[in-house]
């Protein structure tokens, strides 16, 4: 499972050794200008004259039914390691992954909103035809939007929709000077890290909305873009296990072991340590989008258990408290390394045996 969060469940050797377990992975909005244009529509009893060309999200004012398309954003997205992740944006604004292993880090709704202003008798008294489709060349990790869906706000759906890309449907009369609304959903593909020619960072993919009279004349077109800020997937892996070595407990009394996370210094009191295996800190490597802030979570303690079910409680320490930064600049891969140490107590009454345990290291983009 790929998210904007990476987690790894780690066996830790205490008194013996630690083994690496599989890592499970869990990774601002930057908007681009809207895109739109208008085709001329010759006015007659269905319109008011020639359209004068719109740019951005607003269409021209010559065709009678003038659309304005408002952009939307997926926010921060963590790409998958391989392949394409398809995010399904519903007209309600909800977003779900329908295929692939990428994940959306933002939780806000994402949908296109459209308003249509009627400034002629054509749309006031008659139906208006609508067409929606993808347009232009997507940028960054976003692909062309597809499988469009619509939901009515104040607009009156008379027929349709039919098709996927483009889709076509018909709205009822709007009343001269009236404005109606509806919402657009679509499938948004995001390319994974294996697409070397697709840069991370800001991305956009545009749509158009075209209106025309019931006779197919007086076409007005407007458009807007879906944007996203796409990061490489965030992963964490164990570079070396946390190992406390082999300890000879005292006949009576108590002792303790401390393995410093920052320096690797190892100390023991009330007992003796054998020379093999050599005690060592746990080391972990994080990879993700360069220049991004991350938070790292290490549990304050975990339990080690021997083959008979006896336990020792380990108190952890680490070198990654607070916010950390991945190396390098945005648009390139970044890394960060941190270490985990620990301490525990034992005594003459502590059962002998090989103890081991697990702890979860969690890493997330801020």
Sequence-ordered SSE layout with sheet pairings:
Layout (H helix, E strand, L loop, with lengths): L4 E10 L8 E3 L39 E6 L1 E7 L5 E6 L5 E5 L3 E2 L7 E7 L2 H5 L2 E12 L6 E7 L4 E6 L4 E5 L7 E13 L9 E13 L6 E12 L3 E6 L6 E2 L5 E6 L6 E4 L2 E2 L8 E8 L3 E5 L3 E5 L5 E8 L4 E3 L7 E15 L7 E11 L1
Parallel strand pairs: 4-15
Antiparallel strand pairs: 1-2, 1-27, 3-8, 4-7, 5-6, 5-13, 8-13, 9-12, 9-14, 10-13, 11-12, 14-15, 16-21, 17-20, 18-19, 18-26, 21-26, 22-25, 22-27, 23-24, 23-27, 24-26
Question: Tally of extended strands?
Answer: 27
Structural class: mainly beta
Q: How large, in whole angstroms, is the Cα Rg?
A: 30 Å
CATH class of the largest domain: Mainly Beta
Unreliable stretches covering 5 or more consecutive residues: 10-56
Architecture overview:
The chain is rod-shaped, with a radius of gyration of 30 Å. It folds into two domains: 5-26 and 235-365, no CATH class; 65-230, Sandwich (Immunoglobulin-like). It has one helix spanning 121-125; strands at residues 5-14, 23-25, 65-70, 72-78, 84-89, 95-99, 103-104, 112-118, 128-139, 146-152, 157-162, 167-171, 179-191, 201-213, 220-231, 235-240, 247-248, 254-259, 266-269, 272-273, 282-289, 293-297, 301-305, 311-318, 323-325, 333-347, 355-365. Helix content is 1%, strand content 52%. It contains one helix and 27 strands. The strands form four sheets. Strands 1, 2, 16, 18, 19, 21, 22, 23, 24, 25, 26 and 27 form a twelve-stranded antiparallel β-sheet that branches. The protein has a seven-stranded mixed β-sheet with strand order 7-4-15-14-9-12-11, with no helix packed on it. The chain has 366 residues and is mainly beta.
């Amino acid at each position: 499972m790929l998210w904007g969060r990476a987690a790894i469940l780690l066996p830790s050797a205490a008194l013996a050794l630690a083994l690496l377990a599989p890592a499970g992975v869990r990774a601002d909005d930057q908007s681009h200008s809207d895109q739109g244009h208008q085709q001329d529509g010759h006015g007659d009893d269905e319109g008011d004259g020639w359209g004068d060309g719109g740019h951005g999200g607003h269409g021209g004012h010559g065709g009678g039914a003038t659309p304005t398309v408002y952009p939307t954003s997926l926010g921060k997205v963590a790409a998958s390691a391989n392949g394409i992740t398809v995010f399904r944006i519903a007209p309600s604004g909800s977003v779900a992954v329908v295929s692939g292993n990428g994940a959306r880090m933002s939780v806000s709704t994402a949908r296109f909103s459209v308003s249509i202003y009627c400034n002629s008798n054509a749309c006031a008294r008659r139906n208006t035809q609508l067409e929606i489709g993808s347009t232009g060349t997507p940028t960054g990790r976003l692909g062309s939007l597809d499988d469009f869906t619509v939901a009515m706000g104040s607009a009156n759906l008379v027929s349709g929709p039919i098709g996927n890309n483009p889709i076509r449907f018909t709205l009822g009369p709007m009343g001269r000077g009236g404005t109606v609304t509806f919402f657009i959903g679509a499938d948004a593909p995001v390319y994974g890290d294996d697409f070397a020619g697709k840069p991370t960072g800001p991305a956009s993919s545009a749509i158009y909305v075209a209106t025309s009279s019931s006779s197919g004349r007086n076409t007005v077109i407007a458009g807007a873009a879906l944007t996203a800020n796409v990061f490489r997937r965030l992963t964490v892996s164990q570079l070396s296990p946390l190992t406390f070595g082999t300890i000879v407990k005292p006949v009576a009394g108590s002792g303790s072991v401390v393995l410093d996370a920052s320096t690797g210094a190892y100390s023991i009191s009330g007992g003796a340590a054998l020379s093999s295996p050599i005690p060592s800190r746990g080391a972990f490597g994080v990879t993700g989008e360069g220049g991004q802030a991350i938070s790292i979570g290490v549990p304050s303690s975990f339990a080690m258990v021997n083959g008979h079910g006896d336990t020792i409680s380990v108190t952890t320490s680490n070198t990654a408290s607070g916010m950390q930064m991945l190396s390098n600049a945005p648009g390139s891969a970044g890394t960060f390394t941190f270490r985990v140490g620990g301490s525990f107590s034992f005594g003459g009454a502590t059962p002998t045996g090989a103890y081991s345990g697990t702890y979860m290291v969690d890493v997330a983009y801020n």
